[in-house]
Amino acid sequence: MAIATASVSRAQTVPATTPATQPTSKPAAIPADLIWHDVRNFGLDGRAFDDTESYFDRLPARARGVVRDEVWNLSRHTAGFSAHFQTDATEIYIRYELLNEPLAMQHMPATGVSGVDLYARVEGKWHYVATFQPRVKANEALLVKDLLPGLREYRLNFPLYNGVTSMQIGLARDSSFAPIGPRREKPVLFYGTSITQGGCASRPGMAFTNILQRRLDVPMLNFGFSGNGRLELEVSRFLCELDPSAFVIDCVANVSTTLIRERTAPLVKLIRTSHPATPILLLDERTWASAPLIATLGRPQEEKRAALRQEFESLRQSGIEQLHFRDGHDLLAEDGEATVDGSHPSDLGMMRYADALEPTLRSLIVP
Question: Beta-carbon neighbour count of residue 165 at 10 Å?
Fold first, then answer.
């Protein structure tokens, strides 16, 4: 049964603590008597389905063979997942194994593709703490030391462009530990492209959906599929099983003008069939940084934007309510300085995405 708040499947529950083992990359300095807490015992924010093939998949096992292979393989990446816990530890260790190699891409570092980062709640706001830089698939390492004494909430963000097969948090025996389960508020659901998935943030916490999660203090479900956000009903039928506070459809960059005209209306109508009143936001794509100078970029993009706007207006005129449109011209600003390759946002670009979308999402999810 699909759920929007990512509860733990009892069949996948494992012991709350496990003894330290000897993985591939274990440094000699790691204490032998750490207590290891498996995140599968307390659940993950961002995990939408219980009936997954691997605990850390984004789509259910029954999606295999229904969605295209490219989508299925990308659904095994942990974009948007995070573990939430409370401890007074002054040192925090991690032990996790990655699904795939290589660990990095030419335009995105290993810290974003395969790494994790840690945030702490300080005076009611989330504050960055540390990032782990993986060099091998199996990792056991000190994530942060010399933390100031005190009991705090922490959030561990998962890799954006890789999957994991296990994830544990290691603490000293005399440290307190209290797991915090997945949020019960309705999440915002994003269905989209490589940018939605997190490309090319330098670390997981800088993906714009994760930035928005911290700012809005609501759960986010990330169904970004790099190069494969194609307005597909085969994917959307699974997403319609969930119960979000809003659907954000961010697929323009991965589809042609023809596909926008063919697929937008069926997708919106499918969502409306199961969610009669849930807000749906059609998000226009960002402007390529070099579009003002390269005709083959700017002109086709404007044609796609016009097609999406036309579909939006037609759907509204047909009686579809709670349907919204967000122009994309300002998502990266106009100075051309916010991408790694003209297309994918840098951390600056991700921050600009969040700045642009925050007011729109607030207006949709706040009664």
Answer: 14
Give how far the C-alpha of residue 160 lies from the chain's centroid of Cα atoms, to the nearest Å: 7
Q: Grade residue 10 by pLDDT with cuts at 50, 70 and 90.
A: very low
User: Residue 11 pLDDT > 50, yes or no?
Assistant: no
Neighbours of 285 (CB within 10 A): 22
Asked whether the CA dihedral 221, 226, 227, 228 is positive or negative, the reply is negative
Query: CA torsion sign, 13 to 18 to 21 to 27?
Result: positive
Point out which residues pair with 153 in neighbouring strands: 86
Question: What does each C-alpha distance from 55 to 126, 201, 341 come to in angstroms?
Answer: 26, 24, 33
DSSP string, 164-182: EEEEEEEE-TTS-EEEE--
DSSP state of 234: H
CA distance linking residue 44 with residue 145, whole number of Å: 24
- Backbone φ and ψ of 110, nearest 5°: -60, -30
Q: Which amino acid is at 185?
A: E
Q: Which two tokens stand for residue 223?
A: 């169904």
Count CB atoms within 10 A of the CB of residue 3. Answer: 15
Residues 6+ apart with CB under 8 A from 334: 287
**Reported pTM:** 0.92
